[in-house]
Write a structure and sequence with these properties.
Shape: elongated
Helix content: 55-70%
Strand order of the largest sheet: 3-6-4-5
Structural class: alpha+beta
Strand content: 5-15%
Distance between the termini: 91 Å
Radius of gyration: 27 Å
């Protein structure tokens, strides 16, 4: 036991490989732990630090504290969340310093969000020192599912030290189930559909809307890999179901709320984006002034449901009535354009008949 403690004390916790999601983007990542690792070591008063909101439900292990206090080896710096002065990693080392009568301790600061600080605390406590109990790891997984819903089960499992299917079961029981996104960020930082069947069906819709779209384009819009897009196209050409039996079973296990959420995501009509790309490649539009104006107007109006929600929130109260009136005028103008084009299409069909 003493040998293990000395080995632990001889090294600084390695945190540079841990990524947490960018709080503003939802898909981007920032090396939060790397920031903590690279921050300067400072000597801080122990009275200024707190150990609240720890992933350990039972608090510190007194025997472990006493063993650390008896070591003659210098203990590595603890990691502290600067905005709250809460200890992220090193609660036992802090207690050991108090037992020895030290009034100051060496600290590395982390400046990220509190939710990311908790994830970092779980990750570091799972990697070294006194391991978290199974109960604590499951509780941590439930909390991370709620605070980082876009993370995949495997990514959360890697942080908390559980199996991915255990995290999946926790996600299913979570009260935040209705708010879980349609896609997840994996351990490699890539965004993928949480339900593979959904991505395949969306790819099929895109291919039917624009058969000439490239596989890379389809894969990007459907949120699937190019290999999956290729398989979908092959199945479509052969007249086979786009979804495998295993994926159909997985889709059948989804809750009604989850299915409703996915339908709302699909209502964003990704096929329109493919059509817009196709129009942009048409020389008769791309190389004429009127065509350029039309393409610019279509791009400006091509906003998904989330985008419109952000726009609504950005309109100040004293301008809402004016913006609403202009939006109706724009909608009427688009409707007039659609009607006139429909009339021309109908006239052309009549003449051809």
């Amino acid at each position: 036991m003493i040998g293990r403690l000395k080995a632990h004390a001889a090294r600084t916790p390695e945190v540079s490989g841990f990524d947490v999601p960018g709080r503003g983007s939802g898909t981007g990542t920032s090396s939060a732990a790397g920031a903590a690792q690279s921050s300067a070591i400072e000597c801080v008063s122990v009275a200024a630090l707190t150990t609240s909101d720890t992933p350990r439900s039972g608090g510190e292990d007194e025997e472990h504290v006493q063993l650390l206090a008896t070591l003659q080896t210098r203990l590595p710096p603890i990691v502290v969340h600067r905005p709250t002065m809460r200890v992220i990693d090193g609660a036992h080392r802090l207690r050991a310093a108090v037992v020895r009568g030290d009034d100051r301790i060496m600290v590395r600061y982390f400046d990220g969000a509190e939710a990311d600080a908790f994830v970092l605390a779980v990750r570091l406590n799972s990697e070294h020192g006194l391991p978290l109990s199974l109960t604590d790891r499951k509780a941590a997984a439930a909390r991370i599912v709620a605070s980082h819903p876009q993370w995949s089960d495997r990514r959360i499992a890697e942080v908390v030290g559980l199996a991915a299917n255990t995290v999946g079961a926790i996600r299913q029981r979570s009260t935040a189930q209705n708010e879980q996104p349609n896609a997840s960020i994996g351990r490699d930082g890539r965004m993928r559909p949480r339900n593979g069947a959904e991505g395949r069906l969306r790819a099929g819709e895109l291919m039917r809307a624009n058969p000439d779209a490239s596989l890379r384009e389809i894969a990007r819009l459907a949120g699937i890999s190019a290999a999956t897009a290729s398989d979908v196209r092959a199945r479509l050409n052969r007249g086979e179901p786009l979804v495998t039996p295993q994926q159909q079973q997985a889709g059948a296990r989804e809750s009604p709320a989850g299915s409703a959420a996915r339908r709302s995501v699909r209502s964003g009509c990704p096929a329109s984006e493919v059509l817009l790309v196709s129009l942009s490649k048409d020389p008769s539009l791309r190389l004429t002034m009127a065509g350029k104006i039309l393409l610019r107007a279509l791009r400006a109006s091509s906003v998904d449901a989330d985008g419109w929600s952000r726009i609504v929130d950005a309109v100040p109260p004293h301008r809402q009535e004016v913006v609403a009136r202009l939006a109706r005028e724009c909608a009427n103008a688009w409707q007039l354009l659609a009607d006139r084009l429909a009339e021309r299409t109908s006239e052309g069909s009549t003449e051809a008949g």
